[in-house]
Design goal:
Number of helices: 9
Distance between the termini: 60 Å
Shape: globular
CATH superfamily of the largest domain: Cytochrome P460
Helix content: 25-40%
Number of domains: 2
CATH architecture of the largest domain: 3-Layer(bba) Sandwich
Radius of gyration: 22 Å
Strand order of the largest sheet: 8-9-10-11-12-13
Order of helices and strands: HHEEHHEEHEEEHEHEHHEEEE
Largest sheet: 6 strands, mixed
Strand content: 25-35%
């Protein structure tokens, strides 16, 4: 018994146990269920659907979500003017709604349930590492998800760099009651999302199991910020783009995170259900790095 206690005391002082403790502290579950993330408190803005103006609605094909975007006065004024110089205090908020097919009218997509709230808060000094925007995500109860806050913010920001020419704001204003003049943004100097070719034998062993060796060349999306800050949502967002790229070049299209473990991949395939549409096998990694695979027709909404 004495020897066991001595051994235990020794282990408690080793770097190995310190590393284990560090891993335990970084368990994503510890970040869930909180009312604040990255300095953004849900309660401070929870009245936004009734006090701010609805500026646009979007449908996300990859997640099947309907997204209603609201802006406070500072954000609205800047957005409507066509400027990208958002002042501190400008805020955008989104209500995300999962959708479903109306069983009595299959041609119609209807709202199903709230999925989450998203916030973009402008503060150039506080959020300087993400170009002046703070990002916050909350569940329908206004609580945080099991995601490390800084990693979540960096992943959000890396995607928003795709519209840097719009001040990192995807939303385009639209009025449902009157005609509005759409802002004219300066076109980007170069495309934010670029692709390059690699050969099949340059793929990782995991990817070689999925991509047929008959596919000699693969289109690879190169965006360093996204690669360094890959989020699960990043993979979902990129699926439609990869399908378009794969169709245009009749070759697999791949996004591979910097860790070489997480990826999204679209491979041209055959599927009788697609009729005259192009067929693809779409594979992404899940949070536990298991594979999620779907057969998709080009005009499917994933």
């Amino acid at each position: 018994m004495k020897k066991s206690l001595t051994l235990l005391a020794f282990l408690c002082t080793t770097p190995l146990l310190a590393q284990v403790s560090s891993v335990i502290k970084e368990d994503p579950k510890i970040f869930a269920g909180k009312s604040e993330v990255n300095g953004i408190v849900y309660a401070d803005y929870k009245e936004f659907p009734t006090t701010w103006q609805l500026v646009t609605i979007r449908f996300r094909k990859d997640t099947g979500e309907m997204r209603l975007t609201y802006a406070n006065e500072l954000a609205l004024k800047t957005l409507m003017s066509g400027s990208i110089n958002y002042p501190d205090g400008a805020i955008f908020a989104k209500t995300n709604v999962r959708t479903m097919m109306d069983e009595q009218y299959p041609n119609s997509i209807a709202p199903k349930e709230l999925s989450r709230y998203q916030f973009m808060v402008r503060n150039k000094d506080k959020y300087s590492s993400t170009n002046g925007w703070g990002y916050g995500l909350f569940d329908p109860d206004g609580k945080t998800f099991p995601e490390e806050p800084s990693k979540m913010a960096n992943a959000c920001y890396s995607c928003h760099t795709a519209v840097e020419n719009r001040g990192d704001v995807f939303s385009r204003p639209f009025s449902f009651i009157e005609k509005v003049k759409m802002p004219n943004y300066n076109p980007p100097k170069e495309l934010a999302l670029k692709y390059s070719w690699i050969k099949w034998n340059e793929l990782t062993p995991e990817l070689k199991k999925i991509v047929p060796s008959t596919m000699k060349k693969i289109r690879v999306l190169v965006h360093q910020k996204m690669m360094d800050n890959t989020f699960q949502g990043t993979l979902d967002e990129l699926k439609p783009l990869l399908i378009d790229e794969a169709k245009a070049h009749k070759a697999p299209a791949l996004f591979l995170a910097s860790d070489k473990k997480r990826f999204a991949l679209a491979v041209p395939s055959k599927n009788d259900k697609c009729n005259d549409f192009a067929a693809f096998t779409v594979t992404t990694t899940a949070l536990d790095l298991s594979l999620i695979q779907n057969s998709v027709c080009k005009d499917d909404s994933l």
